[in-house]
Design a protein that fits this description.
Helicase, Ruva Protein, domain 3, 19% strand, 4-stranded antiparallel sheet, Tetrahydropterin Synthase, Chain A, 47% helix, alpha+beta, 7 strands, 2 domains, 3-stranded antiparallel sheet, flat
Amino acid sequence: MDISLDLVKKLREKTGAGIVDCKKALAESDGDFEKAIDYLRKKGAATSQKRSDRIAKEGLIFARVNEARNEAAIVEVNCETDFVAKSDTFNNLAKAAVEAVFAGKTADVNALLGSKSASGSTVQQVVDETTASVGEKVELKRASYFSSADGFFCDYNHLGNKVASLIEITGKVTDEGVTLGNDLAMQIVAMKPLTIDRSAVSDEMIAKEKEIYKIQAINEGKPENIADRIATNKVEKFYEENCLVEQEFVKEPGKTVNDVIKAVSGLSGSEYKVKTMVRFQLGETIGL
């Protein structure tokens, strides 16, 4: 079948595999993009698999919690250039969008655009005014809103505001708990966990990963029984790398996030548990 050059380029950008390998993968997969990714992984041609497609748009991510730490909001606002993203005008739009989320207690973009900002104008009017001021297309891309009845929120905005995170922890608000929450919010930004723990990983995802690991081992010449064992070990490694509480804690190598949560719980006298996490990056969302 005829495979377009654009599709080959897209597959190459996503996997890091060579052009020839990408062409072959798409041909073997009858042009199915996702099947072609699996084909490359099984053949060992893909050097990496990005978690999700990224978009080329510029902009800002802002995460914020209220003073009581029982509400949290995060937004993404987009523009065309990084120069505009750094401007005060665009920053003011991002802040207005966050405030609108808190005021409306909603993540619905259409509802937010119609809501009033602190200036009295609607958020849509602020977007239009910003567009006219900077001379670029500007939009409120997405938002999330959370409230907690049995815990508290912490946020982390990475330098440059291209990525940010929110985390909800059940338990009492204490200095130790807030420090823990801030550290874990930073962990989410740095280590990109897919889920909080392994219970949230679907059986389908694990079956798919295990199949890929097994085929990789067989392609390396391993007997099937050894390949099974290798695949099982790699699934455990998958959990350790992708489940927040099983990850190595970035601030204390040698300890897992779960180790740190237990230690802080003991010191504070409150049992802490991660309930919610969300991570926004320009064009990319990982969270529950």
